[in-house]
Amino acid sequence: MIGLVDNIGPAEEMTVRNAANIRSPADFKGKTVATPFGSTSHYRLLGFLKTNGLSQREVRVLDMKPAAIQAAWAKGEIDAAYVWAPAKSKIIEAGGTAFVTWDKLDKAGYAIADTIVVHNDFAKAHPASVVGFLKAYGKALGLWRSNPEEAARLVAQQAGVSPETAMAEMKAYDFVDLSAQTGEAWLGTPGKPGKFAEVLKGTADFLVEQRSLRSAPPVGTFGKALNTQFLQQATA
Questions:
Q1: Distance between CA atoms of residues 144 and 127, nearest Å
Q2: Residue 23: pLDDT band by 50, 70, 90 thresholds?
């Protein structure tokens, strides 16, 4: 892992159907919630249930891909969904409201992020390309910082949503500057991994519970996989 795209935060969130009258965690009892199994949204949804004393016997959780979630929402088959954009924004436009969970879940250790990973062999053979890739991302992030309207317009074209929706969704992300990613709170420095190694370990343990992985290595293995030497070169 050579870098972060963002801390997802509220960009990946629970959305509830307005007609379902869900106002508190207790209101989820007897409701049907969809999410893609094995995803970060599934991880956060189960974290939400656990931290609020709810079980999957009380809340019906269905495995659906984002496109299927949109279709089920349109048919009125689900009461809520935990998913990311553009599906999240589209079901909000179709009679949904965000039910905020991310802040408490982050504090409870259920942080999630979009990451940048490179194959070891490629990194060894083409280090300049890896540094160039990170510089290109830094340039894109610079456009978002300096001209958010133009950045939102470009993202809207790719995502198939309005520029206004793209702007609202992008504002929900915490885009971490490249220079800040080598801090202790994130990836750390070569030989001194940051706290994100613990986040990766927690995610791996979740995947073991879901039987997506047979086992999870110790946190030290994740720390060794955080390679910030390319970030340091890209920001030098």
A1: 26
A2: very high
pTM above 0.85, yes or no: no
* pLDDT tens, residue by residue, 58-93: 999 999 999 999 999 999 999 999 999 889 989 999
Domains of the chain: 8-107 (3.40.190.10), 114-205+216-234 (no CATH)
Non-local CB neighbours of 209 within 8 Å, separated by 6+ positions: none
The pLDDT confidence band at residue 108, using thresholds 50, 70 and 90, is: confident
Question: Residues in the chain, how many?
Answer: 236
CA 81 to CA 70: how far, in whole Å?
A: 9
Residue 176: closest CA among 157, 196, 198, 162: 196
Q: What string of H, E and C letters represents the secondary structure of the chain?
A: CCEEEEECHHHCEEEEEHHHCCCCHHHHCCCEEEECCCCHHHHHHHHHHHHCCCCCCCCEEEECCHHHHHHHHHCCCCCEEEECCCHHHHHHHCCEEEECCHHHHHHCCCCCEEEECCCHHHHHHCHHHHHHHHHHHHHHHHHHHHCHHHHHHHHHHHHCCCHHHHHHHHHCCECCCHHHHHCCCCCEECCEECCHHHHHHHHHHHHHHCCCCCCCCCHHHHHHHCCCHHHHHHCC
Is residue 109 predicted with pLDDT exceeding 80? no
